[in-house]
Design goal:
By secondary structure, this protein is of the alpha+beta class. The protein has a single domain, classed as Aminopeptidase (3-Layer(aba) Sandwich). It contains five helices and eight strands; from the N terminus they run ββαααβββαβαββ. Strands 1-2-3-4-5-6-8-7 form an eight-stranded mixed beta sheet, sandwiched between helices. Strand 1 and strand 2 form a beta hairpin. The chain is globular. The C terminus is likely disordered.
Length: 178
Amino acid sequence: MEILRSPRLILRPLIPNDAVHFARLLGPDRAGVRMTASIPYPCTEEAAREWIVQKASPEAGQVFAITHAQSGEVMGAIGFGDSPGNGDLGYWIGKPFRGKGYATEAIRRIVTHASHLGISRLFAETFPTNPASSRVLTKNGFRLTGRGARQIPARGGSRTILKYVIEIQGCPGQNTWK
């Protein structure tokens, strides 16, 4: 898996030592963890390490640590699972970094990367209680396709979700960073 760059970010493969940063960012942020489908709560260093090992496996697709290009500080994670021609996008940004455009920039970069891999469509889901995530997705060209329910054991069972999709090939307005 390659390292991806954008103006302010470096997206690099996850490593087990990222667990310390996950625990620092998500340990005290129960509301943030609840906006994800699979991050464990409480997000201890040990629980985060297990999650990272699982997500870093080849079967999990491509999952990256979102790091600040200048400081190298871990800010979150982003990635997508592979299926022929499609992918399922997931991401989170630590509370100190929200509202500054980092999630928008990371998604834009990952969409470009998926396009270069020949993926023509990415799907994403968010909870209706997370309007900021919905805004970030639509800002990046995702369109709402409807509501649904999904079993999310880490969040207590069936949860209502909003479903999004982006058609990547020929998607106008996407920045293409190398």
